[in-house]
Amino acid sequence: MQRGLVAEVHLAALRDNLRSLKAHIGQRPLIAVVKADAYGHGMTEVAWALKEEGVECLAVAFTSEAVALREAGLRGKVLVLFDDQDVPAILHYGLSPVLHSLKAARALSVQAQRRGTEVAVHVKVDTGMGRMGLDVQEAAEAVLQIASLPGLRLQGLLSHFSDVSPKDLGYAKTQLRSFLALRAALAERGLRPLCHISSSASVALLPEAHLDAVRVGLALYGAMPFQDEQPIALKPVMKVRSHVLALRRLKKGQHIGYGRTFTTQRDSLIAVLAFGYADGYLGSLSNTAQVRINGREAPVVGRVCMDLTMADVTDVPNLREGDEVVLLGPQGPHCWQLARAAGTSPYEILTSLGGRARRVYVA
Ligand SMILES: *Cc1c(COP(=O)(O)O)cnc(C)c1O
To answer: What phi and psi values does residue 183 have, to the nearest 5 degrees?
Structure first.
């Protein structure tokens, strides 16, 4: 018997999400974020599907991911978000790095000249995320210097929001204001790079931040970073399934799993499922998540084990060993249900489940 999980990736849903997002942002380019193996959906397959739909630009975290895209035959623009040091790969594969310092810009400029080429670069400024980039308050001079370096063509200027929620857009608006102030200062000096700051949450909630382009990850895969409100219609792209390995009858008062964290309150039918935390089904889903079996919700009972998980299926009719169980997706729990149960985000649910599953693609 196969171990673990199967992730069905529904590319039609991905395409539909792209179209909904495009309708929302208008004519400006959409930079599709496919880092972390496309949030667990498989980077090259997702990239090809998006390319066929006319996506203008792909974004990854590291050059190694960009190289994998090139080696899979993808041409066109690839933005490397976090990794501006790997100059040979940037030049050899024609990548567009996001630069985080003047030092990195100079090093790239030297090598680009040596090769007699020009590299399109984007410069990152920190407007309040506290992670990477030039401090927005002091960035103008450095950006002008970078723009004047031979071998580089300043194509974009970007920043990243740290806190965008339907309840409070105040901090995001402060970040946006300082980004726009920098943009205006650069425009006064004749510099007009493509400015982008928005990702999934702000694309939905803060239209004034759309600017010249938007970078979208999570929403393409069918979820928003916030719960409850659905300003843009999105479809889950990934269905994750496994099967019932064994069925057990337990009497009222029996314990289940390591640490005896669950005790049956009635005579129960318990399904032993063929996956565990080694498959990315987080331990924090123990006694909190639900799975769907034969169209019914069944609670996870006891601690999730390394290779096995137990669910109470007393109320599920006509169940047999080998039957399908759905952990996530259109015919099962939404990734927000799992995120809430585990006390985490849909990002972590998608990457941990999709990252380890055997993937199959459905056109
Ligand atoms: C991951 C990432 C994005 C995409 O964010 P989503 O919330 O998934 O849309 C955009 N920009 C940067 C810099 C990122 O790291």
So the answer is: -60, -45
